[in-house]
Structure formats: structure tokens, C-alpha cells
Write a structure and sequence with these properties.
Elements: H1 8-21, E1 42-45, E2 51-55, E3 69-76, E4 80-88, E5 91-92, E6 108-124, E7 129-135, E8 166-167, E9 176-177, E10 180-181, E11 186-191, H2 193-201, H3 218-221, E12 225-229, E13 238-244, E14 251-258, E15 263-270, E16 277-284, H4 289-295, E17 303-307, E18 313-317, E19 330-340, E20 355-360, E21 366-368, E22 377-381, E23 386-390, H5 392-399, E24 408-412, E25 421-425, E26 436-443
Antiparallel strand pairs: 1-26, 2-18, 3-4, 3-13, 4-12, 4-16, 5-15, 6-11, 6-13, 6-14, 7-8, 7-12, 9-10, 14-15, 17-25, 18-24, 19-23, 19-26, 20-21, 20-24, 22-23
């Protein structure tokens, strides 16, 4: 990856302009009430050069997180195509034998099979997506680790009947489950009566439906499901469903009838806390701004980004901090990093609610900066379209030589269970608001 570093001549020019033109006396920190000749040597700088760019994100764990699993796809105008698929174990709600009183399974009729997913939230636009469901072919374990890049082999054969998978999510409208209206929004995906419904029913009396975890029982036979979107989309089309698999309404229901006894029965298969589950993330940013910036980091001086789900992470560096302590000692009274972000009313791509700053320590590990423990900030300010971070301790540690002045990473919260991303302005943006490091400091 190309990194932007000024030439020596350009560096000297920037240093001179930055260091000698950015100092100004601050009049609102008590200077006006000091006796003449006894003023504190306070100054403010907000013109320090920032180098901003992005890097590929790290693979993150997405299994059994304390939150939703993400499903769907969309094309972001900056980030390209983002797709999330769910892998999940399915469990019997109870041991079952579908054999009717007549003793003959042929006296049963499967009317329908429905996969219900309770929607907790949604990201993007609500165009119809083509949802597909496949049966897993390989074992799947709750005590194993699965990541945003993990996958499990699936059998061929879409369990969604042909022509019935095109569904428009309705994340803000109450849905229905088993024909009854419920307050929560529900994504309902029809499954095939034969390849799913009868495949289950035909195991009656074999021991497979006697329980979930014993040898030869259900989970060993039915490995789990892959639920995905396979949709052709244009820019700004599609979105991500936040599915709460542990909700009581998230399940598969087989509706069947005993034609002799004239009984209509609904049987549930559940996702629960014993179900292994994770979501896999696929991203393709080729041909989009993010992909271009990964190839040419100087584009980050115009705009740069951070993204959840193991996507790109924003990077920021203050290359000329040493100029402040070149000739004298400095204590920073306050250091604020201000990062304007691009978000407008009616924009469907909501920025992350909270961002964190990390640095690389002497062992090469990514750690939170010291200010994280108290008064850190980093929450999105909708009124001013910006994030403000208090990084006073971090800058003082650099000035004292306690830590090195290395680039910081900008990471969003809830990275494994949300689809939010942020578009930041760089210092070379044509927009009004530019990122800056505002230092209030004392020379001594």
C-alpha cells in the first residue's frame, strides 16, 4: 500500500508554516485577569498537519455474539458491495414422532414451511432481495471459533421454492407469525414442503427426532442452515437485516395436517442459546473510492473511512508533533482531535454511534490510547456532523517520550454486530469542515 509522506523540502516548508504560524495567545483561559508580566505561557494550535488514510481491516469473531446476526446485501456508493450470510444450527423444540394415529405417514399433508426471523434493526434501503437457504454439509460446533471470513460447506439445492425468495424486508412494520399478528417486524422466508418439510417428517421413528445432541440424533444429522442473499443490485440498493435468532419468533414452523383425524398441526424447530451461529461477511470494493484509496493512500487526504464487520479502518498520523518540543518543554493542557464526517438528512447509511482510537504498543499489539478510560469522547455529534476525541494524555505521553508517535487507528463500536460505516473529510477536502488537532499547551 502506498503511503503519503511529504518530500524533505515540502516537509521543511510545512513544519515552518505549521509551527510558527499556528501559535496564538488564548484570551479565554484566564489570561486577562493575570497581573501584567505574570501571564501563563499558554498557546493554541489547530493547524498541525494530519495524514489520513485507510488500511484493510482485521478478521473479527462473529460467533455467538451478544447481539444480532446480519443478513442481506447492498451496494454502498463509497464502499462497494457488502454481503452478510448467516450460518446457524437448528434444534428440535421437543422430541417428536410425526406418525399419525393411523400409523401411516402418507395420511399426512404438509401445507407449508416458514422460516421466521425477528428483525431488530436494519441498515440501508429496503428493495427486495433474493433470499436463499441451504442445508449445511459439514459439522458445526458451538465450542468452536468462527469469524467474519469463516464458511461451512453446504449442500446443493436451494430450500426456498423457485420464484418465492424475492422479499422486501419491512423492518419498521409489525409482522405475523403462524398467521397471528405480532408487534415486532418479521422477515418470513418460505421453504420447500418436500426438500425441508417431508425430509424432516420422514425421519419419524428413526431416532433422529428423539433429541438434539445424542449420537444419531437431530443436530448430528441436520448440521444447520446457510441463509443468504443472492441479489443483483445497483448503487444504493439493498440493505442488511439485523436478525435476532434468539428471539422466540425466530424459528422454522412446519404446518401439516392429518387427513384422517382432520387435525392441523404446527411444529417448531428453533434457534436457541445452544445453537452454534455466526455471520460471514463478503466485501468487494473494487472500482469504488475505498478500493482506489487502498491502492493509493494519498486519496485519504481528501476523504477517508472506517467500517464495521472487519472492513477498512481509518488511520491518522501527526507527523510534526516533535516540532513543539524541539526547543522547549511542553505540557498539553488539552488536546482535541476533531473529525468531521459526511452524513446528511435522509441518508440511509447511518455513521457509527461511537468510535475508538487505538495505537500499536511496543509489543506490536493494538491497544486503546490512555484517554479511553476517562472523558474520551468519540460519540457522533449529529448537530455538527463530527466526532470529537479528548487525546490529552496520549499527546503528553508522546511529548514526554513515554510512547512513540505512531499512526492511530479509528475503529467503530459494535463492529461485529452492526453494518455502520463513516466517511470522514480529509484536510484536502473541498468541503468546509476539515479534520484538525487542537492543542492548548504551556511552554516552560
Amino acid at each position: 500500500m502506498m503511503k503519503f509522506w511529504p518530500t524533505k523540502a515540502a516537509t521543511l516548508f510545512i513544519v515552518l508554516i505549521t509551527f510558527f504560524s499556528c501559535k496564538k495567545k488564548e484570551n479565554d483561559l484566564g489570561l486577562a485577569i493575570q497581573p501584567q508580566g505574570d501571564e501563563l505561557n499558554l498557546a493554541i494550535s489547530d493547524t498541525t498537519q494530519l495524514i489520513t488514510y485507510i488500511e484493510e481491516g482485521d478478521t473479527i469473531p462473529t460467533d455467538e455474539l451478544s447481539g444480532d446476526n446480519l443478513l442481506g446485501s447492498y451496494i454502498d456508493p463509497f464502499f462497494g458491495r457488502i454481503e452478510s450470510s448467516i450460518f446457524a444450527q437448528l434444534r428440535l423444540s421437543s422430541a417428536v414422532n410425526f406418525t399419525p394415529v393411523s400409523g401411516n405417514l402418507t395420511d399426512l399433508v404438509v401445507d407449508s414451511v416458514r422460516l421466521y426471523l425477528k428483525i431488530s434493526n436494519f441498515y440501508g434501503n429496503q428493495q427486495a432481495q433474493d433470499f436463499e437457504v441451504y442445508r449445511l454439509a459439514s459439522d458445526f460446533y458451538i465450542d468452536s471459533s468462527y469469524y467474519s471470513s469463516s464458511s461451512i460447506d453446504s449442500l446443493t439445492g436451494n430450500l426456498v421454492p423457485m420464484g418465492m425468495g424475492s422479499i422486501s424486508p419491512a423492518p419498521y412494520t409489525p409482522g405475523s407469525v403462524e398467521g397471528e399478528f405480532v408487534e415486532e417486524p418479521i422477515l418470513t422466508i418460505p421453504l420447500d414442503e418436500n426438500s425441508f418439510g417431508w425430509d424432516i417428517i420422514n425421519q419419524s421413528g428413526t431416532g433422529i427426532l428423539d433429541g438434539n445432541d445424542g449420537s444419531g440424533e437431530f443436530v448430528e444429522w441436520f448440521k444447520g442452515l446457510l441463509i443468504k442473499s443472492n441479489t443483483t443490485q445497483n448503487i444504493n440498493e439493498g440493505g442488511i437485516v439485523y436478525a435476532d435468532l434468539l428471539d422466540e419468533y425466530s424459528k422454522i414452523t412446519i404446518f401439516y395436517r392429518d387427513t384422517v383425524a382432520q387435525d392441523t398441526i404446527a411444529y417448531d424447530l428453533n434457534f436457541n442459546s445452544q445453537s452454534a451461529r455466526f455471520h460471514r461477511i463478503s466485501m468487494d470494493n473494487s472500482g469504488f473510492y475505498v478500493g482506489n484509496e487502498l491502492a493509493d493512500s494519498t486519496l485519504g487526504q481528501t476523504q477517508f473511512f472506517t467500517q464495521t464487520l472487519g472492513g477498512v479502518k481509518g488511520k491518522i498520523h501527526f507527523p510534526h508533533l516533535s516540532e513543539y518540543i524541539k526547543d522547549e518543554k511542553v505540557i498539553v493542557n488539552k488536546a482535541e482531535l476533531i473529525l468531521p464526517a459526511q452524513y446528511y438528512a435522509l441518508d440511509k447509511y447511518l455513521p457509527a454511534s461511537q468510535l475508538y482510537l487505538t495505537r500499536i504498543n511496543e509489543d506490536g499489539d493494538d491497544v486503546f490510547i490512555e484517554d479511553f478510560t476517562e472523558g474520551f469522547g468519540g460519540t457522533y455529534d449529529f448537530d455538527n456532523s463530527q466526532y470529537v476525541f479528548n487525546i490529552t494524555r496520549h499527546i503528553n505521553q508522546i511529548f514526554s517520550g513515554e510512547i512513540s508517535n505512531t499512526p492511530l487507528s479509528i475503529l467503530p463500536n459494535q463492529s461485529g454486530i452492526s453494518a455502520n460505516r463513516v466517511v470522514f473529510n480529509g484536510q484536502a477536502t473541498t468541503l468546509k469542515d476539515k479534520p484538525k488537532l487542537k492543542l492548548t499547551f504551556t511552554n516552560y
